[in-house]
Write a sequence for this structure.
């Protein structure tokens, strides 16, 4: 069974749009946990558009209470600015079980590509080494490219998270979907052959998730936007159960 980590960023977006504390990120994350999810994911950005440093701290305490995985994802080169302490500072203070390093920049609406690991060798290697020395599992957000996957292993990563946007965009066209799935299957097989575990995420939803997971050997999916959107229709408890069922 593939583990499900719920990204709660979109709950924070809704809260921030009005100010105050509703909807409450902490209590809704706890509701997800009580309904069986395997982890909670956050992706803080330096403009504080959704997850704030206090959210990270509170969710770290929540996941420790329930003994489930906390995954902080983001750009390791995102530096301190105003009320944002810097990505690595947040990670080091809260020590999640997993840190997923993503090559987004402040102007991006959402993550839309994986690392080009040939351009960030030395600095990223040092960051990965530092995080691992703190007992944090490191995953790199990548496109399904065997060359990048091999380089991730050389840099010391424990896992890769495959960016599944292209698969999701191909889903409604059977021929394109099968071609995309074959590409991801080869990427997963290659990752395993070099000693990496595989996560996946982005644009996965109730329609396309189970088909994607049939390629096998996906340890964890991180899902936020689609899951929170579906909860408007089904309610959060039922939605979590629907997604967990797709992960079986």
């Amino acid at each position: 069974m593939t583990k499900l980590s719920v990204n709660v960023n979109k709950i924070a977006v809704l809260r921030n749009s009005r100010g105050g504390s509703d909807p409450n990120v902490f209590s809704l994350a706890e509701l997800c946990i009580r309904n069986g999810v395997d982890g909670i994911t956050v992706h803080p950005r330096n403009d504080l558009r959704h997850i704030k440093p206090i959210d990270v701290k509170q969710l770290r305490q929540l996941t420790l209470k329930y003994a489930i995985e906390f995954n902080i994802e983001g750009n390791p080169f995102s530096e301190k600015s105003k009320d944002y302490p810097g990505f690595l500072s947040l990670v080091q203070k809260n020590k999640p079980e997993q840190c997923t390093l993503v090559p987004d920049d402040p102007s991006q609406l959402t993550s839309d590509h994986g690392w080009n690991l040939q351009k960030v060798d030395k600095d990223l290697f040092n960051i990965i080494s530092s995080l691992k020395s703190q007992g944090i599992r490191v995953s790199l957000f990548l496109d399904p490219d065997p060359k990048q996957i091999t380089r991730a292993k050389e840099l010391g990563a424990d896992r890769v998270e495959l960016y599944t946007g292209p698969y999701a965009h191909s889903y409604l066209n059977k021929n394109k979907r099968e071609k995309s799935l074959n590409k991801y299957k080869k990427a997963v097989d290659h990752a395993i052959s070099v000693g990496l575990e595989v996560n996946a995420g982005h644009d996965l939803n109730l329609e396309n998730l189970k088909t994607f997971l049939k390629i096998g050997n996906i340890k964890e999916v991180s899902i936020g936007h689609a899951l929170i959107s579906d909860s408007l229709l089904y309610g959060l408890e039922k939605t979590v159960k629907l997604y967990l069922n797709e992960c079986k």
Observations:
- The mean pLDDT is 96.
